[in-house]
Amino acid sequence: MKKAIMYGGGNIGRGFIGKVFADSGYEVCFLDVVKEMIDEFNNRGQYTVRIVSNAGEQDTIVKPVRAVNSLTPEAIDEIVTCDIMATAVGVNILPRIAPTIAKAVVARMEKTGKPLDIILCENQLEADVLMRGWIYECLTDEQKAWADKNLGLIEASIGRMVPPLTPEMREKDRLLICVEPYCDLPVDKDAFKGEIPDLVGLVPYSPFEFYIKRKLFLHNGGHALCAYLGYTKGYEYIWQAIQDPEIYEAAKASMTAAANALIAKFGEGIRANVEENVVDLLERFQNLALKDTIARVGADPVRKLRSNDRIVGAALFCIEQGVDPMPIVKGIIAALKFDRAEDATAPEIQKVLKEEGVEAVMTKYMGLTAEQPLYKMILDAYKA
């Protein structure tokens, strides 16, 4: 039986990629450091994924699975003999697992010579570049030369949403995970070094920049706009916000603007793709079972208002492609009103806004200059 390595047994590892591997006919070996979780995997050989939607819920069993402590030499041996691998550990953890992967790359080069493809499920721009840099810190020039030809680091766009479990659910079943029905897995087609695996839901695509921007500007951007507009109206959950007709139309207009910019950039061939994605997202945001809160989706506006992120980045992209960004500007203005005191960075923005004005916020946090068209659009809309 073919073997897949899933580095990380968290929400995406269990709820998405581990299930994709198992559904595609692979034995799944999880690498993790949590002893209780490792023991559960090995004692049961399976776990439950609960697919939840407004239509109800459905439990599916994921098997065969097992687990190994990622800090042991056994983890390196597992990577050496696997057919495909993925990571879902979080961007901050990638540098920590790079030395283990580097050792496995060296052992694989010496023992089998087979290419190793790793799907990076981290929702981080240029995750492949970052990861290769961390791995190469541990390799000699000869090993790097081999890795250049045989180590595939494949960016992925992770769109599946995972609702939180109640403490009671966690207590009853440590491995249980809930997910929405959506399960497409777009990946960078050009990054594979070996044969592209036949995985359920896999969407190999080139140029992958399209899917990176689609996820960031349509999904993340639309989600954030719902959160910030929902906050101004006092809603607690995203599903409440998107069911407000005014917010629904605002989200649709914002996402449509970004979709039109994507079409302008990548051509008419992707029109159906992005238009269907907008419709799908507007429906998925209404999933009550996700229990997605305004506080979570709107959290950390300092990051979300950066010039290369989901809202300001989308507006700048629209301007670059000759598309009117005003529907997205509406979301930026709402983000400036996100004054949740418990948030990690919202009070910081509110302090600068109060003491130095919106101009300082645009310069300091959005990276905009007075000469840019978006600067004036935001300034006029804010004052209005």
Short description:
Helix content is 51%, strand content 14%. With 384 residues, it is α/β, with parallel strands linked by helices.
Notes on the protein architecture:
This protein is of the alpha/beta class and 384 residues long. It has 18 helices and eleven strands. It has helices at 11-23, 35-44, 73-80, 94-111, 127-136, 141-150, 167-172, 209-232, 238-242, 245-266, 271-284, 294-297, 301-304, 312-320, 326-335, 346-356, 358-364, 373-383; strands at 3-7, 27-32, 47-53, 56-62, 65-69, 84-87, 116-120, 151-155, 177-179, 185-188, 202-205. The strands form three sheets. A six-stranded parallel beta sheet has the order 5-2-1-6-7-8, sandwiched between helices. Helix 8 (209-232) runs antiparallel to helix 10, helix 10 packs antiparallel against helix 11 and helix 10 packs across helix 14. It is globular. The mean pLDDT is 96.
Major sheet: order of its strands? Answer: 5-2-1-6-7-8
Low-pLDDT regions: none
Helix content: 40-55%
Give the overall average pLDDT. Answer: 96
Q: Could you state the order of secondary-structure elements as H and E?
A: EHEHEEEHEHEHHEHEEEHHHHHHHHHHH
Number of strands: 11
Sum up the overall morphology in one term: globular
- What's the N-to-C terminus distance? 64 Å
Question: Which structural class is indicated by helix and strand composition?
Answer: alpha/beta
Q: Largest sheet, if any?
A: 6 strands, parallel
Fraction of residues in β-strands:
5-15%
Radius of gyration: 22 Å
- State the helix count: 18
